[in-house]
Amino acid sequence: MRIVQKDRIFAQPLGHIEQFSFDERVAGVFDDMIERSVPGYRSIVAQTGILAGRFALPGTHCYDLGCSLGASTFAMRANLAKTACRLVAVDNSTAMLERMRERLRDDPVSVPAVEVRNADIASMPLEPCSVAVLNFTLQFVAPELRADFTVRLADAMVTGGALVLSEKIRFDDQAQQSLHVEMHEQFKRNNGYSELEISQKREALEDVMIPETLSTHRDRLHAAGFSSVEVWFQYYNFMSLVAIK
Ligand code: GEK
């Protein structure tokens, strides 16, 4: 049985708050961190697997882009046993991928094989794919690179393929923005994070995780060539959508 390490990274006062990075310390507590920080995380991960099973086509790639410890990869794998596709899990954090590879060795499911790649999704070549999952990853890609990346992804996707894009979003309406931030912070408090942890992490993430509005996501996906875009999940300022090519 896996022992989940508690996230206490921001629990003590930090004189200087460094920019957040997916290093060894974060990878070591990531299961706990994401579960206590992202509303609906488990449901979203499970659904990425179901959607992968629904849209995967033989002979194509199925990508988990920004896989971290592979939560979506494993959910996808459990739904892809009958489809002869290539499951590829990508991340640019060596610390995350080391742990992901350990989990892969312990996974009771063995088909399809999973290829684990250490790469920057913004520049890696993309092969013809029927499924791509970006589960809370695009928000960490520099905003100026997001449009080109989305175009490359849409170009690589076969007709009828699907992208599952989960992101923290922001709202143009200031009252809604404040309300959603407030509700999310209460969610974190309810999950045991202190005011200090919430504020120090907010500062560490400020220039690293850049949320956009839902309409920015929709417009970019349509402009890149996805024919339909619908939100299937929203919980406060966290949403997941399906974009079909
Ligand atoms: C999950 N999907 O558990 N290229 C590759 N990987 C990247 C890049 C990039 N340019 N930028 C960030 N990452 C996972 C959770 S976490 C979300 C995803 C979060 C990686 C980064 O190293 C990290 O592992 C992941 O994207 C984001 O369903 O922590 O809120």
Explain this structure.
- The chain has a domain at 41-135 and 153-165 and 208-244: 3-Layer(aba) Sandwich (Rossmann fold).
- 42% of the residues lie in helices and 20% in strands.
- It has helices spanning 24-37, 41-55, 71-77, 94-106, 143-156, 174-190, 195-205, 214-224; strands spanning 61-65, 86-91, 114-118, 129-135, 157-168, 228-235, 238-244.
- It has a 7-stranded mixed sheet, sandwiched between helices.
- Strand 1 (61-65), helix 3 (71-77) and strand 2 form a beta-alpha-beta unit.
- Helix 2 (41-55) runs parallel beside helix 3.
- The model has no long low-confidence stretch (mean pLDDT 97).
- Bound molecules: ligand GEK.
- Ligand GEK binds next to helix 3 and strand 2.
List the SSEs and their pairings.
Elements: H1 24-37, H2 41-55, E1 61-65, H3 71-77, E2 86-91, H4 94-106, E3 114-118, E4 129-135, H5 143-156, E5 157-168, H6 174-190, H7 195-205, H8 214-224, E6 228-235, E7 238-244
Parallel strand pairs: 1-2, 1-4, 2-3, 4-5
Antiparallel strand pairs: 5-7, 6-7
Helix pairs in contact: 1-4, 2-3, 5-8
The chain binds ligand GEK.
Ligand GEK binds next to helix 3 and strand 2.
